Amino acid sequence: MLSRFSVFFPLVLSLVAFILTILCLFAGQKEGFMEDYAIARVNTSMLGHNILDTSSDSSSDDDDNDGGLLDTLGDKLDDIKDEITDTINDITGEIADQLADALGIHEWYSIHVMDACEGYFKPNATSPGAGLNVTGCTQSPPAKRFDLNKMINKELSVGPLDITLDDLNWPDSIDDAINTLNSALLALFIFYVLGVGFSGLAMLACVAGFFLAGRRSVTIGNLTLAALAATSITVGSIIGTVAAHKGADKINDLGEDIGLSASIGSKFIALTWVSSAFMIAAAVYWTAQICLMRRDKKREWKHRKGSY
Q1: pLDDT per residue as tens digits for the range 182-233
Q2: Which residues of 226-263 are buried (b: 16+ CB within 10 A; e: fewer)?
Q3: Where are the domains of the chain?
Q4: End-to-end Cα distance, the chain
Q5: Where do transmembrane segments lie in this chain (predicted)?
């Protein structure tokens, strides 16, 4: 059996898992608080680019039957037209960065366990490593935490242009991708709450394990609580990871034509799995402790049997 002071190892592991799970649960609870740790983020800075027609059809075929001076003039006109088209495309590239502002909507919307936030990129959406300027966060029931359709339509209604998402060719199937994330949020919330509760109890049980070292019932109790906490956090991590990937992939597939994209919260996923790993390590410690106790008990039994 390990020394009673070794109980501080699972105590620290449980404490870290407890804190990290709380951070996963409350990330984004206030404007700017751990905004980088969103489950997923929807980028709307390019939304509406499909309504800008910057293409220019070439009419050179119409001049195929001309010759001489007219043919030469036609070539010159085509060259000028190509230059104008290139200039328009360059201007459109600059305008595209300001589409969200022109439509009256935010440039990004993020999904957290407890709420949803919105804001703009800084200094702008196309800058490498652009930062996040949070302008607001809203709380709602977990099952309907993120209603992107409603949020954008509401902003469009008070924006400078009299349009709706239908005018932007918004696919109805995008709502299914959003619902996938919303369904996961409710389960994620439940498992994180359970994880926080069980990891907190696991810390208290470690204290009991220090003062009552060697008692099999106490060790089994510690293992049970650690295992429940590890299971809850791990299941939550799996749900969050799968939902983020599936939701983001579906939004990217469906929203490509209208300028809508999504990204998974890699920092959030890393945080939740680290929390899970710490709690699993605590459960492994108590499992090893029980195995050592059984080994010591067998040795003691053999020793007593041999003494008779």
Answers
A1: 888 889 999 999 999 999 999 999 988 777 766 778 889 999 999 999 999 9
A2: bbbbbbbbbbbbebbbebbebbbebbbebbeebbbbbb
A3: 4-45+98-296, 51-96
A4: 25
A5: 7-28, 189-213, 225-244, 264-288
Contact criterion met (CB below 8 Å) for 296 and 65: no
How far is it, in rounded angstroms, from Cα 229 to Cα 236?
Answer: 11
Q: How many CB atoms lie within 10 A of CB 72?
A: 11
Please state, as a whole number, how many other Cβ atoms lie within 10 Å of the Cβ of residue 15: 18
Beta bridge partners of 136: 118
CB 109 within 8 A of CB 116: yes
Indicate yes or no: pTM above 0.70.
yes
| Angle formed by the axes of helices 266-307 and 8-26, nearest 10° | 160
- CA dist 35 and 195 (Å) reads 22
